[in-house]
Amino acid sequence: MSGGCQVSGLSKHTQNLSVNPQSSILFLEDEDRTEEIFARRRLSFDCHVESIDRETEVWHQVVDRFHNRFGKIVNLLHSLADFQMFALKPIAGRFVVGFGAAYDVDTQDLDRLIPVKPQRS
Description:
This protein is of the alpha+beta class. It contains 3 helices and 6 strands; from the N terminus they run E-H-E-E-H-H-E-E-E. Helix 2 packs antiparallel against helix 3 (73-79).
């Protein structure tokens, strides 16, 4: 699995992604929907980052998928010279569902969760 991100070349985070092939992403449960703010469900991945060159087959496939999902705005973004695309390839993942309930995500099989055991001193 790999995910993608599309960003402006003018932004600070794009400049960072261009020179640093490592990044992290975090999916976090909405505060309004959680019962316990300190135990919100969250999924994080450490990722390897690769730039996707314009006008390649992969570029067009991703742009088409984004267009199908987000509509006409993607045409505008695609036309901007600073518009860049990156592939995010997970190398490690962690899914936390509450207090004492954490799992490592198998990045080769994202359906497989491995319980994290407490470290004993």
